[in-house]
Amino acid sequence: MKKEDLYNLIRKYNAGLATDEEKHILEQWYDKLQIPLSEAEEATVRNKGEQVLRRLQAQNIASKKPIRAIRPVYRWIGVACAVAALLLLIGYPFFQGDNTQDVIQNIGITNIIPPGGTKAELILPDGKRVDVSALDEKKIQELYSALATNQSFSSSDESDNKYELVVPKGGEFQFVLPDGTKVWMNAHSKLSFSDFDQQSERRVALQGEAYFEVAKNKSKPFYVDTKDAQVRVLGTHFNVRAYENQTRTTLLEGSVSFSNQLESIVLKPGQFGENSDSKLKTGIADISREIAWKNDEFYFKEDNITYITRQLERWYDITVAFDTGISMQTGYTGRIKRTATLQEVVEMLNYVMDVKMEIKGNKLFVERK
Q: What's the pTM?
């Protein structure tokens, strides 16, 4: 939605003239904005929101009715300032005195880059590739059944009975392993597994990120192997992130053993274990942040720009280029729906960051402001 159109829609809503369809459009847009503010930022937005209100009233744009919040995204901002703060957020030129020149920044949008979606490919033992994201529910259930009973897709060599589930950049996928274990795969991830029935254990190998709800089977422990670590469980809920050269496991329920080649630790619910530079460490996890991706959210908490843009790269299937002299140490905190387009995310990040992001084709440029 163009910012001018959004401004006009907010003005109609505030005046009580918006149709039900227009209200729905505005609520959908508003739902995508979930950026917590510090106390100082809250005070700034509240102050400027009140300034916007005064200008709205002076220009007879606002109705005499009390301003209503659409759906409170900023819990800490009073209802009276919610719409005004939103006007501030979209950059409409109310703070330029009587100058009505459009000062909205051109962020170089030439095409719309949508959010990621359901995408996955299953590579069978014989090398055949099945686009499971293209199958309807019935076909997927038939595929699950075939895997569970080892029909149709069996390799003649049981030792080579290996499957690979590949989720590309811009994708995510929920899958059920033959033993009933549920797996949620994040973008740019791969899970390898074999026929559990022929083995004394259940073992999978992960590259990327996945959330597991392991089916209980005390006689067959479940293992997740990554490049530099291993997770051993009997039946539990946990998240594993194994991008680049770091493995991090967060436990939600049950008990897991987390190890590398040198040492091992046992995690309790609510704890994380991390292996970096061959050293294990553990601590209290922010569960909502750790599994935000599974709930269709980006959740940043004092994260630097490298961490943030890597998530954007994987989810929107883009590449990122940095200008020289950009600080990689500054931490940023906020929440944004992963259902937003890249343009909407960039608009929000440009508002709170001390850098400028610009989209050109399928590339995101990060420059100094």
A: 0.69
